Amino acid sequence: MTNPLDYTGKVALVTGASSGMGLATAQAFAVAGAAVVLADIREDAVVAAARELVGRGHNALAIRCDVSDDADVAALVDRTVATFGRLDAAFNNAGVMARIAPITDSPREDWDRVIGINLRGVWSCMAYELRQMQKQGSGAIVNNASVGALTGNPGIASYIASKHGVVGLTRTAALEVVRHGIRVNAVNPGLIDTQIARDVVAGDETAYDGIANTVPIGRAGRPEEIASAVLWLCSPGASYVIGHALTVDGGMTVA
Predict the structure, then answer these.
(1) Which residues have CB under 8 Å from 62's CB, separation 6+?
(2) 101 to each of 33, 120, 218, how far by Cα in Å?
(3) Which EC number(s) are documented for this chain (predicted)?
(4) What is the pTM of this model?
C-alpha cells in the first residue's frame, strides 16, 4: 500500500515558516520527502531555518515575503515554480495577533494590520497558488485559521474577525476549484505553544500555564501536532475532505 504521507517528488510552500507552526510544518514536509519553500517576512530567521534543513539533506529554499504585499506573494509563487517546476501543497500560515483593546479603543491601523496579514494575505496567497495549481490540474491548500474562528473573544476583535474570514474564504475557494482537482481546507488550532500564544499574556508564564491547564487534555498543543494535521489534509488520505476547517485544540471547543 502506498503511504499517503509520502511527499517524495512533491513541492510544498509554507508561509510564516521561520518559527512555530509554520516551521514545524515545513520541517514535516521536508522529512516526508517534499522540496519545501519557506517564506517569512523575517528574512534572517527563515534563511537560517532553510539552511538547517539543507544541512540535514533536505531540499529547501528560503524566500522573504510580506503576505500583505501582492507583489511579494506573486514573486514567491513565481520563484517557487521557477525553482522546482510546480506547486503541490501550500500551508498559508503567516499571521499576527491583535493588540489587546476593546473595539472602541482599537486604532484603525491595528485593524488594517491584522486584516491585511491574516485575511487579505491568505486571499492573496491563494489567488497566486491556485493559478499555478489550476495549470497543473492538481494541488492542495491548507489555511491557518483558529478556534477563534468558532467563537468571540473580547479585546481582539480584528484577530477574531480575520479568522472567521479565513474559514469563509476557505469554504468559498474550495467550491470554486474542487472540479479542477484542487482541494482547499483549513485548520483551527487551539492553544499551541508558540510565541504568539505567549504574547497574548505578555510573557507572563504563570498566566500562560493557567490557560494551558484549562485545556481538557491538560496542556498546550505542540506545533508538530498542527503540522501532522496539515500534512494529512494535503495528502491523498484526505482526498474526500473539501472546504473543511479541522479543529485541533485538545478539546477546548467541546468542553
Answers:
(1) 37, 38, 39, 40, 43, 46, 47, 49, 50, 51
(2) 44, 22, 28
(3) 1.1.1.47
(4) 0.96
* Active-site entry in 7, 128, 159, 208: 159
The total of other beta-carbon atoms located within 10 Å of residue 67's CB is 26
- pLDDT one-digit tens code per residue, 29-65: 999 999 999 999 999 999 999 999 999 999 999 999 9
Alpha-carbon distances, residue 203 vs 116, 196, 208 (angstroms): 25, 10, 8
Q: What is the mean pLDDT of residues 218-226?
A: 97
Share of the chain above pLDDT 90, in %: 92
**Cell numbers for 145:** 485559521
Q: By C-alpha distance, which of 59, 63, 67 is closest to 80?
A: 63
Question: How far is the C-alpha of 238 from the C-alpha of 92, rounded, in Å?
Answer: 18
Residue 103: left (phi > 0), alpha (psi -120 to 50), or beta? alpha
Query: In CATH, what number does 11-247 get?
Result: 3.40.50.720
Mutual angle of helices 120-136 and 70-84, in 10-degree steps: 30
Task: Judge whether 128 counts as a catalytic residue.
Answer: no
**Residue at grid coordinates 476549484:** 177
Q: Where are the domains of the chain?
A: 11-247
